[in-house]
């Protein structure tokens, strides 16, 4: 029992560290987008991530073993994240700000809660419905507070599509966590992301230009190394580990809450993004709704995470 508890505590610890890295990743992405097109950013990021993964596997620091395992569900998960999610996210970030992106993506736990409620035909209690509505109201406040002057509607829509993909990934990851280790899940995600984004970048006519520019610009290279190694490898291993130890709704709540606060603060401190009453109000409303809607009693007993 003590070993299980220690494992959960460790999963929370690295999960929070990974979520903080994701929060800072919005700054890394905005920095990289100052030099490259969105698809170029993702292509180089996933290349760095794959090289880092192959290195630690080659050094036998981690191991993967897919013998006798069916990869169909894992490939489907990889389509949702990173392929579709990161595509919507990077273009959404390009059209909005780091703090706005962090705020809007924080409603993922709400969508995960709804998926479990609908998927398992659980009745949504009045209190749960109230928290869900509060979160969505927070999104509306955040968006309407800036859309009139900035015209970022497309960016917000892309981020909402990213939310849908992230929610699908969270649910799928929980379902397959018993068949694959967090290392194996993250490795396949990285490999699929490498093929998808580099292939897309080449089809768009970018060729190897992004790699040439990255090697010439230290700031860009630093941002891409951080995004690739810390955010795409470590943070995803940490999150997949957390999902394997605790309920999906709880993992997404902890992760996205930490990510949101970190992302907003990082945007304000490092990108000099404006602090508006709409942004503050929206952040408070969303986080209150997320935490309230994710209380254990609101979810199916089958997903308490107890084995």
CA radius of gyration? 19 Å
Tally of alpha and pi helices:
12
End-to-end Cα distance, whole Å, is 12 Å
Rough outline: globular
Major sheet size, sense and barrel closure: none
Helix content: over 70%
Counting DSSP E segments of at least 2 residues, the number of strands comes to: 0
Number of domains: 1
Poorly predicted regions: 297-307
H/E series: HHHHHHHHHHHH
Given helix and strand content, the structural type is mainly alpha
Average pLDDT: 83
Portion in strands: under 5%
Kindly describe this structure.
The longest helix has 32 residues, at 2-33. Helices cover 79% and strands 0% of the residues. Helix 5 (108-119) packs antiparallel against helix 11. It is mainly alpha-helical and 307 residues long. The radius of gyration is 19 Å and the shape is globular. It has one domain (2-112, 152-271). It has helices at 2-33, 38-58, 72-95, 98-105, 108-119, 126-150, 153-176, 182-203, 209-216, 218-245, 248-270, 277-293.
How does the SSE layout of this entry go?
Layout: H1 2-33, H2 38-58, H3 72-95, H4 98-105, H5 108-119, H6 126-150, H7 153-176, H8 182-203, H9 209-216, H10 218-245, H11 248-270, H12 277-293
Helix pairs in contact: 1-4, 1-10, 1-11, 2-3, 2-8, 2-10, 3-7, 3-8, 4-11, 5-7, 5-11, 6-12, 8-10, 9-10, 10-11, 11-12
Question: What labels describe this entry?
Answer:
307 residues, mainly alpha, 12 helices, disordered C terminus
């Amino acid at each position: 029992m003590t070993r299980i508890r220690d494992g959960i505590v460790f999963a929370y610890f690295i999960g929070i560290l990974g979520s903080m890295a994701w929060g800072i990743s919005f700054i890394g992405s905005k920095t990289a987008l100052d030099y490259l097109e969105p698809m170029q950013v993702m292509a180089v990021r996933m290349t760095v991530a794959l090289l880092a993964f192959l290195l630690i596997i080659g050094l036998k620091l981690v191991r993967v073993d897919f013998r006798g395992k069916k990869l169909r569900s894992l490939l489907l998960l990889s389509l949702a994240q990173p392929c579709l999610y990161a595509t919507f996210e990077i273009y959404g970030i390009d059209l909005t700000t780091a703090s706005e992106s962090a705020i809007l993506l924080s409603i993922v736990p709400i969508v995960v809660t709804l998926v479990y409620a609908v998927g398992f035909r659980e009745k949504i209690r009045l209190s749960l419905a109230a928290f869900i509505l509060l979160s969505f109201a927070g999104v509306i406040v955040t968006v309407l507070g800036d859309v009139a002057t900035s015209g970022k509607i497309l960016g917000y829509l892309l981020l909402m599509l990213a939310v849908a993909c992230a929610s699908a990934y969270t649910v799928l990851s929980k379902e397959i966590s018993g068949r694959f280790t967090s290392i194996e899940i993250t490795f396949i995600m990285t490999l699929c992301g490498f093929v998808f984004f580099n292939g897309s970048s080449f089809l768009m006519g970018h060729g190897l230009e992004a790699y040439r520019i990255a090697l010439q610009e230290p700031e860009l290279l630093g941002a891409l190394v951080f995004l690739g190694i810390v955010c795409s490898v470590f943070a995803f291993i940490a999150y997949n580990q957390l999902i394997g130890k605790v309920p999906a709704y709880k993992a997404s709540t902890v992760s996205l809450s930490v990510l949101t606060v970190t992302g907003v603060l990082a945007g304000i401190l490092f990108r000099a993004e404006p602090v508006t009453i709409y942004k503050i109000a929206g952040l408070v409303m969303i986080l209150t709704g997320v935490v309230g809607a994710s209380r254990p009693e609101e979810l199916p007993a089958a997903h308490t995470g107890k084995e």
